[in-house]
Amino acid sequence: MNANSIVFFVNGSKVEVSSTELETWATLLSYLRGKLRLTGSKNACGQGNCGACSVLLSEFDHKSQTIRHVTVNSCITPLFYVHGCAVTTVEGIGTSRDGLHPVQKSLVQMHGIQCGFCTPGMVVSLCCLLRNNPTPTKADVERAIEGNLCRCTGYRPILESMSPFAGCPMGAKCCKNKSNKLDTNDTEPEARPIDPTQDSIFPPQLMKWHLKDTLSISYGHTTWIVPCKLEQLRTVWTEHPTAQFVAGATAVGATTNHDGGPIIFISCHRVEELQAISVNDKKLEFGAAVTFTKMEDHIRKLEIEGAKPVVSAFLACIQSLASDQLRNVAVSLTRVYYNVMNKINTQRSHLHVHTRDYNYY
Prior knowledge:
Number of helices: 14
Strand content: 15-25%
Shape: globular
Largest sheet: 5 strands, mixed
Number of strands: 12
Radius of gyration: 21 Å
Order of helices and strands: EEHHEEEHHHHHHEEHEHEEEHHHHE
Structural class: alpha/beta
Helix content: 25-40%
Strand order of the largest sheet: 2-1-5-3-4
Oligomer: single chain
Low-confidence stretches: 334-361
């Protein structure tokens, strides 16, 4: 495939974007709404804060041979970031054969929709949760939508709409557990099981496509360069010593939405060597392109003697940073490291967090 064009799939259909098109549509959201006319994803804050633009991003991990599904804020996602990925918008959820997805149907039945502006993002976030975890807890549901702001409905009916999958958000205080139930005519959502056939199929073509070439694409006065190997990164850096390094591009995405930002960006999110994770009984090492979400998932699996205070502090720092939509792509290892050290103060532990000589964002 041409290393000078961006190739990805949207709701199962292949899309190829040239540099000339990027002059008009630089972010994923602008391309979805302006070029593809998929207007379900809303353009609201433009800074990755409200989640109205949330889409499902799916990527095949050749190392683990698994498909990774995450939500991202499309309003601050540069179009180059989805090169080689599959994007699912709210228009791609549900089928013409079976109708609404169970999440959509439940939101309607439980009055979780009012103006509807935030609903597409909510649906995408909740569907992503169920795709990764068909039996979530109440806490899982709350976390899944912590990056989605509701303007008018209120979160209670939205949380209640997930009761068929995660139980009532009131827990033991649920009215169903009381002998004197209120006699109402409210329609409860039916406990309709999740049907995997309603999920969009990950394109087999992407499972065979292993990105190896450096992507370089320019539009206007901006150039994005995406190497896949550390040696390629060194070469690019030598050629462009004043370029700005990014990984998730969450901060840069918000900036370039408004003032254009720097002229040349080198994104390290594809560099294979910088995505490595290693651990032994005394050291935990993350590559500089490991996202917060991947860091958290790996840390939760750790069982290192004497390390519990540091692990807890590390997790607390990660969970305090933004929302899943940002943690799924953002990288800032050095910042987290210092936050952890501030939290645990002078407390000693057998766990040492090793940071490399890179600090990409």
